[in-house]
């Protein structure tokens, strides 16, 4: 079949007007030589190659996954699929380099093939030894945004009630921790208030640090169909690059603001200042449903358009115009992603977007949505189930009653559940592993050797003798190469489970084919460990009683009941219907819930909330007494902080700002997308993007090789001249040493995270990938001998 | 008002000591990136309190005529300690210093009210509030560091 979605990434337009249904369009792709009549069966699932969660069916022929087709009736995508979903969903599954047997490091220091019994015995021996010598705090788990709900919940239970370690986090810490933190700070609990259907209903959109056209292509197709239809929404784009969103902003009479990297909060506080100054606020609603207006007013008072213009290097009148678009809107939809989450003052800036909606009383109504987006397909489940260190069901680790509920559910002592300190975030886990304070680190479905900041340090930690490293994955990734034991995992389509997207839509993904060789599902691997460790409840019975995904799901339904993410009304049978369903699904909402907070009552009651909150500047925690004294009682918090300059600013030695991000044809470290020929051909190699004025100053022309250096490391890749703001350098973070063709000219020196810093947001603990200082030097011309263009 | 002057001087010096100690702990434990950056942020709060207090110090006179402050004055942290348990101990020392700062502001606020010194009262209340934020972070960070430092760390 043709691969036109490689170049035409959003597909043909189906324009329509405000408040009319988004038309259906079914996209499908079958691998070369396969026609639809060859397909033996279609198996229901949803896409895992971005966070959008498009419903799809997997084509199976002769026991192989050979293609995908969008599900027409699904509320998320109405049949559409993007380039990654179409061309990247299945080829990896039958790649020749799949892991099919466990590996163990031998006495020569080499990884060699072994069997499951030997591999598990080695893990269990180390685990028991550490428990005896040091106790449960010697164990750490670093997981993913790619596993299924059933797997996260199982991991959470074995970690929290079996071992009793607070050291568990996901790579969601790198992508959506700030989304969760901001939702908790403003509304009392995680959970996206809005719905993708708000795109049809809105009359204005604010996209902050969210390059939706490249990160969620199908969602952007949905926006484009509004942009090109009648009554398009006016778009405000905040992004240091002149992205497609910026162009759409100009086309719809909106505004593109390109702030200096690291100054999001200054700009957003400036927008709040304008709303207050012009009285574009819903006074009655704010008085009834929020707390903190006076403090907000005081904090943003000095953020006049002129001050903002100075700090952010934007035009003061553009700030006024953007505020006017928001202020005059009747239905505003905002979306936020890594440009905020991975940048300076992340949580405060994400909360500042929530504040704009709260000031305008625009939440819980059609068109009035906030999508604090996720970066990964199953990140939401990681957060719900507690595989990121939080307690399952958005419970508050600081609330003894919430801990008691879990202790009862699992029939363990309350003290077993690690709730006496904040859950340990990923960067801290690696720091403990660095000193050997954590002696067993178990990594599942993620590739921190490429994706974490300051790569050289991460490689040193994983490769050292101070910590025993277990990696379970589909392939021998750059991380797996450093492990002591490698476990071959089954992937999507090779196992059954559920996952939930960024607008709370739950999908069931059914097993379509058998995994290769001895590969096992992550659920089976975790259960095997739990069995071997004989984790028991306080009566001596097995702690984990489920054996397969459907009974794991039943256990999760019970754990989530009565909490904001209530799955109690869901079942696999319900999820086999035409469309995914949005949680909460319970007795009161049997068909799911399109929008949260429709009554303006938020999850902030002291006894119900997921957190008592934090000081956004320092991360200091608010105590229960302080929270109770504020009497939130269902009112939302207008949380604020003043702008402070980034941790690392350009200097004479490192005069440019370095920022990382994604490209449309790849996902993460390319484990799947790199094994799709069309996607790899479209973006085979790393590059850095320079602005035209910077390039001219440096004597760099398109395609030249450049060395980009920060105080921590360097890369040497080809340069592109692009729409990045002057003074900044953009590098895609997908590329590590691994290369599908084995012949990339820059494979040894192209990893964007060599340059990034070990620093994180004080509240969400999300690492800051977007603000480092760097210098660029041209090393050689575009074409040199023996080198392809 | 010799004793109020004494306390104004004490506030100035104890903020100075706290700032220097925060910077020392931040630099000494820079491997913990959040400690490094947050300690520096908190130290700038102290700097700002001193900057605002400077005209008041001038007004009340710099040379208190009693010996009392010598007994109240706390030494800052000269050298930081090593490792995870060292961090915990250093944070605890910072907490003690910040508590001295806070009670000093509390006492000054009482005096300022008695004298109807609005300028000093406003400075004392605002500084006190920020000292609470400093204490809150120190408390949070100690709670986070404690289990690992006490049970597992080498």
The coarse overall form of chain A would be globular
Broad CATH class of the largest domain in chain A: Alpha Beta
User: Taking strands numbered 1, 2, ... along the chain, how are they ordered across the largest sheet of chain A?
Assistant: 6-5-17-16-15-7-8
Indicate the CATH architecture of the largest domain in chain A: 3-Layer(aba) Sandwich
Q: Low-confidence parts of chain A lasting 5 or more residues at pLDDT below 50?
A: none
- Can you summarize the main beta sheet of chain B? none
Your description of this structure?
The complex is a heterodimer of chains A (789) and B (154). In chain A, helix 3 packs across helix 23, helix 10 crosses helix 14 and helix 19 packs across helix 21. Chain A is α/β, with parallel strands linked by helices and 789 residues long. The longest helix of chain A is centred in the first third of the chain and has 19 residues. The two termini of chain A are 27 Å apart. Chain A folds into four domains: 86 residues, ADC-like domains (N-terminal domain of TfIIb), CATH 2.20.25.90; 280 residues, 3-Layer(aba) Sandwich (Rossmann fold), CATH 3.40.50.740; 232 residues, Dimethylsulfoxide Reductase, domain 2; 125 residues, Barwin-like endoglucanases, CATH 2.40.40. Chain A is globular. Chain A has 27 helices and 27 strands. In chain A, strand 5 and strand 6 form a beta hairpin. In chain A, strands 6-5-17-16-15-7-8 form a seven-stranded mixed beta sheet, with helices on both faces. Chain B is elongated. The longest helix of chain B is centred in the C-terminal third of the chain and has 34 residues. Chain B has a single domain, classed as Ferritin. Chain B is built from five helices and no strands. Chain B starts with a helix and ends with a helix. Classes of the chains: A alpha/beta (789), B mainly alpha (154). At the A-B interface, helix 19 of A face helix 2 and helix 5 of B.
